[in-house]
User: Which sequence fits this backbone?
């Protein structure tokens, strides 16, 4: 809610693929990058469009959905309560690994702490007890060890490679 | 015919090309992801993983080889079942390495859980390292030799916010102890010799909000005072005076800002609740057994007396059973004028005394919400039911004749009831016809909202 009955301020964001988003100010200010944009350009006009050249429309829509819900939770004093957990679980359930990676990249670029915490934990949960090959595929990591080097590292923590999930 | 074949071949070739193209693209996306994410994010991900998963990432690529030396959380749970057996020595050497090679960045959490003890020097060096890396949460659960001494630096940590110890040590609290940031303290199976160490510890916790004492042993002492002005939540379970045949020990709680109190099996000591005027909710679960029953009952009534201000109370069947020994319960129970929410809890095989429950409800004239584990047998109904109870829930309901009968009596006697929630067993939940029938009969008596939910309610 804005003070003194002023109209709610809308922030305009433009994605790399040219889509224009209209976002309520408190939600857009969750993005550290947008916040510092306006801090640095204090005289920016209200209808200034903030360019986000490293984010495309799909992850941005997902991020706005998440931040909007969390801004509301905080306003209602529900932060940390069960309904937040429920929302988060529901939110992430349908997301594929690809979508998750797109989200974390975008959240990292926009610099949204709360969402980054949530996404890193989610990714960690998806990688728990998974094989090296699975994790490499997940992140798209190119193995740049020589076979001898890799063998030496494996040998060092031999026990850690036993009893992991089948891919 | 030929042309169709070649058409199919062409399509499959096209598909192959498309798939190759997509795979290349996917690989590109993957490569981009990992190169675009800064180390800090990757370390953040690692910090949510158990140590075994963390160490496995050192083989992913050269970039990952030493990322783990910056992890902020060290979770080492040897009791989890995915540790290979017979490799304990090398597992622990690896964990040792995590501490030895950790870069100067901070370690926020260190959790260690094991069924086997860790050598004294090693455990000490792990804890010391965690402390020097500004640890905020320390959680140790393992067997140790009784003479194990925690490092001195622990006792002056100004970053430590959560300390959980589940180990049978004699807890010696140095004189210089000062926890300026400790909010949560949980001590399990810790032994205190005399009252001075424990009392010194409590007074050195300048901002403590939550305290759990579980099976803590009191040796050579008959009195101990827990005086913590900042405390908001206290849980005491099974305190054990060493010579517990004597039941002679007295534990006094002074916590003027305490909001929530939970007592479980505390009657082995005399628990004195003094100045707990802020308390909002309480939980009590006591049982009477053995020859000291009357003394136990007196103690339970004393504790309830200290809880008389609460708005919300959870009470076990055992506690009610224990009160049944008191001959003049009406006179000795306090009035619960502020009590709005009463929940009665049943464990597996315990049973209750309905007269005691009635006496209890008679003493609670303003209860609005009543949660019961099951129906009661006798059709007696207290005054508060008639005049102020607005919601009732029954956690366990099978739809038997006497249960339905109880609900009917309940509805006839509840003038202001707005909502009745009944948690049904599987068979009843499936039997929609029967549910409808019961609902219909009940609704004919009272127009309040009646809801049948599937599955028993568990605590």
Assistant:
């Amino acid at each position: 809610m804005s003070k003194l009955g002023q109209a709610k301020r809308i922030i305009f964001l433009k994605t790399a693929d040219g889509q224009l988003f209209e976002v309520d100010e408190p939600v857009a200010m969750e993005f550290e990058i947008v916040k510092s944009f306006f801090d640095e350009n204090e005289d920016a006009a209200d209808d200034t469009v903030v360019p986000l050249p490293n984010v495309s429309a799909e992850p941005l829509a997902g991020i706005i959905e998440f931040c909007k819900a969390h801004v509301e939770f905080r306003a209602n004093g529900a932060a940390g309560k069960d309904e937040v957990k429920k929302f988060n679980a529901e939110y992430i359930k349908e997301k594929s690994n690809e979508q998750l990676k797109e989200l974390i990249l975008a959240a990292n670029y926009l610099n949204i702490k709360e969402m980054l915490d949530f996404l890193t934990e989610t990714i960690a949960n998806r990688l728990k007890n998974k094989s090296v090959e699975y994790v490499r595929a997940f992140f798209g990591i190119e193995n740049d060890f020589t076979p001898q080097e890799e063998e030496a590292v494996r040998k060092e923590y031999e026990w850690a490679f036993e009893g992991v999930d089948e891919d | 015919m030929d042309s169709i074949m070649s058409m199919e071949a062409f399509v499959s070739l096209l598909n192959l090309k498309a798939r190759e193209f997509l795979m290349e693209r996917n690989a590109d996306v993957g490569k981009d992801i990992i190169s675009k994410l800064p180390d800090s994010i990757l370390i953040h991900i690692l910090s949510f993983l158990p140590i075994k998963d963390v160490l496995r990432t050192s083989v992913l690529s050269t970039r990952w080889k030493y990322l783990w030396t910056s992890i902020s959380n060290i979770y080492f749970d040897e009791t989890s079942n995915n540790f290979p057996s017979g490799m304990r020595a090398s597992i622990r050497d690896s964990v040792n390495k995590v501490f030895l090679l950790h870069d100067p960045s901070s370690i926020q959490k260190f959790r260690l859980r094991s069924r086997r003890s860790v050598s004294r020097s090693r455990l000490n060096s792990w804890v010391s390292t965690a402390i020097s890396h500004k640890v905020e949460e320390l959680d140790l659960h393992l067997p140790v030799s009784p003479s194990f001494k925690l490092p001195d630096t622990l006792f002056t940590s100004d970053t430590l916010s959560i300390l959980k110890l589940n180990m049978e040590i004699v807890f010696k609290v140095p004189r210089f102890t000062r926890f300026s940031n400790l909010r949560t303290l949980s001590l399990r199976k810790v032994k205190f010799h005399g009252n001075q160490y424990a009392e010194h510890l409590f007074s050195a916790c300048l901002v403590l909000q939550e305290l759990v004492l579980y099976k803590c042993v009191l040796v050579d002492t008959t009195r101990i005072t827990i005086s913590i002005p900042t405390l908001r939540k206290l849980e005491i379970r099974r305190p054990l005076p060493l010579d517990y045949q004597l039941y002679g020990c007295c534990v006094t709680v002074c916590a003027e800002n305490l909001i929530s109190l939970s007592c479980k099996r505390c009657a082995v000591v005399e628990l004195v609740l003094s100045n707990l005027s802020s308390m909002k909710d309480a939980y009590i679960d006591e049982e009477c057994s053995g020859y000291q029953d009357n003394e136990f009952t007196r103690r339970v009534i004393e504790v309830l007396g200290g809880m008389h201000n609460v708005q919300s109370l959870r009470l076990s069947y055992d506690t009610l059973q224990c009160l049944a020994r008191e001959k003049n319960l009406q006179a000795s129970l306090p009035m619960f004028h502020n009590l709005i929410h009463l929940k009665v809890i049943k464990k597996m095989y315990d049973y209750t005394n309905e007269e005691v429950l009635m006496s209890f409800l008679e003493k609670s004239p303003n209860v609005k919400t009543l949660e019961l584990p099951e129906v009661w047998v006798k059709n007696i109904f207290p005054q508060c039911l008639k005049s102020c109870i607005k919601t009732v829930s029954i956690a366990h309901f099978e739809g038997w004749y006497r249960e339905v009968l109880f609900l009917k009596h309940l509805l006839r006697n509840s003038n202001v009831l707005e909502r009745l929630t009944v948690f049904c067993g599987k068979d009843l939940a499936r039997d929609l016809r029967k549910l409808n029938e019961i609902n219909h009969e009940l609704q004919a008596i009272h127009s309040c909202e009646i809801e049948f939910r599937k599955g028993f309610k568990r605590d």
